[in-house]
TrEMBL record:
Residues 1-110 form the S-Me-THD-like C-terminal domain. This is S-Me-THD-like C-terminal domain-containing protein.
Amino acid sequence: ETKRWVVEHTISQAWRIGRGVARARRENRVDNVAETIIDECGGPSAGKVLWKGKIVGVERMLRGGYAYGECLIEGADVRDHSDAVRGTTRGSPFQGTIKVPFKNENIAVLRLRDDGKQELQ
């Protein structure tokens, strides 16, 4: 019955993502859990890390059966996985704030600039 209704390969993909997160926790590598998830889902050709940070605000409303809103994420002072690969210790690329508008799902990632303008990431 499940085979009739489930999207092919999504159960095994969910299992691989969960395994990667569990390994990252066990090995105390939670700063790089996003990279672990990308590796489990097909590597750099499947996705990339846009931002790392802390959720500082969420607004949502229900309208016409849809959840609309936005999530604000402030950049965290973390080292990017690519820094570790290159062996550098440069400053974090995750500085500032981003906004993720959504309608049931994430629609876009917008970087909030100091001058008040938004730029698509």
